[in-house]
Amino acid sequence: MGQYILAIDQGTTSSRSIIFAPDGAIVAVAQQEFSQKYPQDGWVEHDPEEIWESVTTTMKQVFDKCSLSPEDIATVGITNQRETTLVWNKDTGKPVYPAIVWQDRRTAQQCRELDDDESLVAHINESTGLLLDPYFSASKLAWILDNVEGAREQAEAGDLLFGTVDTFLIWRLTNGESHKTDATNASRTMLFDINEQCWDERLLSTFNIPKTMLPEVMDCADEFGVVSKDILGCTIPIQGVAGDQQAALVGQACFEKGMAKSTYGTGCFMILNTGDEPLQSKNRLLTTVGYRLNGKTTYALEGSIFMAGATVQWLRDGLKLIDDASETEALAQRARQDNGVFLVPAFTGLGAPYWDPDARGAILGLTRDTGISEIVAAGLQSVCYQTKDLQKAMESDGARPTTIRVDGGMSRNDWVMGFLSDVLGAEVERPEITETTALGAAFLAGLQAGVFTSVDSLTECWKSDSIFTPRLSKEERDKAYDGWKNAVARIRCS
Asked: What's domain 253-494's superfamily in CATH?
């Protein structure tokens, strides 16, 4: 058995398998996209068999891209799209319904009805750290049981199993031997008490979910089962699991209270390590499990922005101002400073801390000499201003981020990262390895397997590529941010 680590990164649009060396360096990557299904307005589904096929295919393909063999792999780590909900028959292994994706809003009405119960809403917030919302797994699972013929009867007879994507993959990879999840994924179901670290009986009763369906909740570095020999030709233990954003927190080595990571993909997720106490947000941020190691839980605050890379996609595909995202950096550099143009990308409403679903996007402050450069720059700046909104919300909750580490596609744009540092008034660090989600899964698995000796050794593996430091004075920074707040105020509906 070697010392290399295989990380499975099962995302919303594709699955990847990445082999990491014992020092955290990437050896090889294999990726496969799969289809997105939209059967009705607001519904988003995946075919579980397609997810499974994409994972097993990339697990095999990654070895074609390097000189290693499966025998060189010490351990497997899994990270996954969170909240996405699957239910399958424990005897046949067949899903009873497609995977209902985290973006799916079909249970909005059910959540609105429950929202009238103030005691329930308060209990959800205090127990799970979450808001009552269709985003999380509980209402999705209830919908499957209530709308798929025979599902409830089968569930009550103990024949059906529930899991987020990690659980489904573990179950399949171990040939049905292991029905487990980790504490970070459990914390996104809206059924898990993050204080007591157990399934919440009141919420199981509210959503009418049999407890027998639920997986065993493990530490993030733990024994999740063994990959069956028939997949890669040898058995390999699965020893690290975390939801994608929490995995990125680990991959960024944010192990100290006050450290935060911000991932810039389609949207942006900012997670702040708040230490061993869950901090209840007064600004509608989410309290969640950052990671759990050796039975000890580290908590986090999480804020999400709906439009980050998606804003750049709109500039490219909607307005056709650019042909490729890579052009934005040069255009932004040409924009006039302090041009007064603000782009508020509320195409699907505003996320944290506003939570205004009816707000709509706008470009404000246009003058006769506004050109493409200014509009593109405003689009990029909007991502930074929204990050500032999250930073401010965290500060007012009593948890100021001291270190901000960035990853995701947009983090490679030096102009954006420079402006981000300016507007936050904080150092922004970009790592050498920006595949931090998969790296986090590899770190967790390697920790359990003994490839890494401690959390300190993970910190040593993390290497900075660039540090961006603020260039604006506090006065200049405040003036710019005030302009943004005024722009947001003009498009808000609630």
From this structure: ATPase, nucleotide binding domain (3.30.420.40)
Mean pLDDT computed over every residue of the chain: 91
Same CATH fold, 253-494 and 4-245? yes
Q: Is the pLDDT of residue 313 over 90?
A: no
- The 3 state secondary structure assigned to the chain is CCCEEEEEEECCCEEEEEEECCCCCEEEEEEEECCCECCCCCCCEECHHHHHHHHHHHHHHHHHCCCCCHHHEEEEEEEECCCCEEEEECCCCCECCCEECCCCCCCHHHHHHHCCCHHHHHHHHHHHCCCCCCCCHHHHHHHHHHHCCCHHHHHHCCCEEEECHHHHHHHHHCCCCCCEEEHHHHCCCCCEECCCCEECHHHHHHCCCCHHHCCEEECCEEEEEEECHHHHCCCEEEEEEEEHHHHHHHHCCCCCCCEEEEEECCCEEEEEEEECCCCCCCCCCEEEEEEEECCEEEEEEEEEECCCHHHHHHHHHHCCCCCCHHHHHHHHHHCCCCCCCEEECCECEECCCCCECCCCCEEECCCCCCCHHHHHHHHHHHHHHHHHHHHHHHHHCCCCCCEEEEECHHHHCHHHHHHHHHHHCCCEEEECCCCHHHHHHHHHHHHHHCCCCCHHHHHHHCCEEEEECCCCCHHHHHHHHHHHHHHHHHHCCC
Domain boundaries, the chain: 4-245, 253-494
Tell me the torsion sign for CA atoms 410, 411, 416, 422.
positive
4-245 fold: Nucleotidyltransferase; domain 5 (3.30.420)
Helix crossing, 436-449 with 244-251: angle to 10°?
A: 70
Q: Residue 494's pLDDT band (boundaries 50, 70, 90)?
A: low
**438-480 pLDDT, tens digit each:** 999 999 999 999 999 888 889 888 889 999 999 989 999 999 9
Query: What local confidence, expressed as pLDDT, does residue 88 receive?
Result: 96
Instruction: Give the residues across from 30 on adjacent strands.
Output: 17
387: exposed, middle or buried (Cβ count in 10 Å: 0-12, 13-18, 19+) = buried
The predicted pLDDT at position 1 comes to 64
Name the burial class of residue 298, with classes exposed (0-12), middle (13-18) and buried (19+) by CB atoms within 10 angstroms of its CB: buried
In angstroms, rounded to a whole number, what is the distance separating the alpha carbons of residues 153 and 97? 15
CA dihedral over 51, 57, 59, 65, signed as positive or negative: negative
pLDDT 10s digits, 336-378 = 888 889 999 988 778 778 877 778 889 999 999 888 899 989 9
